[in-house]
Structure prediction request, 417 residues.
Amino acid sequence: MSAPQDRTRSRDVAVVGGDVRTLDPRWRGGSVRGTVLVRDGRIVAVGPDVPVPAGVPVVDATGRWVLPGFVDPHTHLGVHAEGEGWHGADVNEKGEPRGARLRTWDGVDPADRGFADALGAGVTTVAVLPGSAGVVGGQTSALKTWGPTVDAMLLRAPLGVKSALGENPKKNSSGGKGPGTRMGVAAALRDAFAAAQRFTLERDRAQADGGEPGPVTGTDRDAEVLARVLAGELLWHQHAHRADDIATAVRLADEFGYRLVLNHVTEGHLVLDLLRERGLPAVVGPLLTSRSKPELRNRSLAVPGLLAGAGLQVALTTDHPVVPIQYLPVSAAFAVKEGMDPDEALRALTLNPARILGLDDRVGSLAPGLDGDVVVWSGDPLDVMSRALHVVLGGRSVYRWDGRGEVLGHDGTWNPL
Prediction:
């Protein structure tokens, strides 16, 4: 264990000599041998002839692959902590079948070991979603995977609202408080959005009349959050595996006009024309699971490639801890094995999830102005024998491999993973 470091030091670093895959929107595959320069936590230059100012720490990436940090757009990191049992199970508020006012970042434990595992796999940004026991699970957040408190880790919150269709809300009907059929789940969503529309109308009318707002209830807070979804301010993360549930998700989005992001999309290949017609993004996964319930009967590692081949914007997810987050690049490798284009698989780990979540102004590629989240790989991340050797997050070195993985502690010391 090395000596403590100054945590207040400037977040400057130069990653030099590596084969850089920028993954920026103009990226067409291949690499450029060069430098990624980060000053005060942001990328300022990328290219073959970038001068390194005196005093800037250097990471030698000669002969290595250099990529942006990976983005997992659907996890339960921190709210479903591994190895904690009921003590770490903060992912589903089963007493609230329509809990839009619930916020994931109020339940995140930064000490969840999954965050260190994420760094070891080159994952530097995650979306944290509530579970799928309720029809409306709560608000989602985007976090960096290193930090002493959730407030220090937050990239954006709220990011959107999580909703579930299919088996999960049916079998977890909140002690009889929630619906127990697919038509009941759809009706509950319509009721919730109708309440949001009514809330907005009454609020605007009261403001126009100069009146005082009435007492605020939990139902009002739910409606206020859903009103932001209807206004296009927040994403609608829709859990849907089965083809008919995917079609219901599209039907509801058409009816209410919100920004739909489909999650799981296990049978997306069975409604490919519908998805292509709408141009909907797809967060696909987890891939490395068994067919553990009926709606996974058509689970296939070929789905990401089929959707991407049809022109859809595809991102991959582990749904951590359903599949441990360190297997995100392995999931991409298996998708390539089953037909996905390798370059598209790298986009599915970086630029695509950042775009789908509206975070591409901060993460997902190596371009000036974006966060200095840079990962040095021993080789192609889609080769399961490759490993992340050095992870820079916001210009700060937070993970390194030298025969074993070490994560920078919040006291400034390096600790074994």
Notes: Confidence is low (pLDDT under 50) at residues 1-8. The chain has two domains: 1-69+364-417, 70-360. The chain is about 25% helix and 25% strand. The first strand starts at residue 13 and ends at 20.
